[in-house]
Predict the structure.
Amino acid sequence: MPMLFYAMALATPAPLTAPVPAPPPLREARADDRFSTIAFDPTADAGSQLEVKLKGVALSGRKLLVIMGGNWCHDSAALANLIDSPRFVGMIAEKYEVLFVDVGVPQTGNGRNLDIARRFGVKKIKGTPTVLVISPAGKLLNSRKDAAGWRNAASRDADAVYRYFAEFTGA
């Protein structure tokens, strides 16, 4: 009989002595959340947005920063959040217009808006993000190799990223 009592005691969970705390409430994504997704809208008319931005920079004299990526890509999200962080936002807002372009998943043949990259001499998007720095006259300022070389944006040093974008502004 004592053996049966012992087995039943093991099978019955012990009562909780303290209440289990509720999980913390969800919060909105902030700019300093380096890997939250931001601005790559797959339904946007990126071609029309590009034309509006090009006209704007032609009038303002600022540069156009075209970030081609996707919300699924941690490097795209990291770069988008970094340039929207308190450290970057002043320089970016003063010196650049920014356009986020959703490119789908071009690596698998499911790309979108790839004509925008081709327009500036980048024949193929091999990775995301692809970053185009465009002059007020509509010319690509960074090299095609640099434009395509941002696939490691999440692991880049913030100081180096800042210097990279500042070099095109004279800042």
